[in-house]
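Researcher: Quick test of sequence recovery. Tokens follow.
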């Protein structure tokens, strides 16, 4: 057993199994590629495709929206920017369709 691992084969505290870590920009490169691909589809299919998705599969639409939001985004709700009202309207629409 290497001195870097404990008796159970786990890495000792303070020792990394990947000392060089993730390559710089790997996550952001993937994110940029995803957004670029999404932009290509949007430019071809336009608003209608997003509108159809929101109508036909609201959960998939919200997953798409969530995938575009940065993980560490801090949201402050307030003011009258219309976003909260739009989410409330979407929620009412989803619940009305399920009744």
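Model:
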């Amino acid at each position: 057993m290497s001195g870097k691992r404990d008796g159970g084969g786990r890495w000792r505290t303070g020792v990394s199994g990947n000392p060089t870590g993730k390559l710089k920009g790997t996550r952001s490169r993937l994110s940029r590629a995803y957004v670029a691909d999404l932009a290509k589809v949007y430019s071809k299919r336009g608003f209608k495709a997003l509108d159809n998705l929101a109508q036909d599969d609201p959960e998939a639409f919200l997953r798409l929206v969530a995938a575009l939001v940065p993980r560490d985004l801090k949201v402050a709700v307030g003011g009258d920017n219309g976003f909260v009202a739009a989410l409330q309207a979407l929620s009412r629409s989803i619940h009305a369709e399920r009744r």
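The chain has a mean pLDDT of 80.
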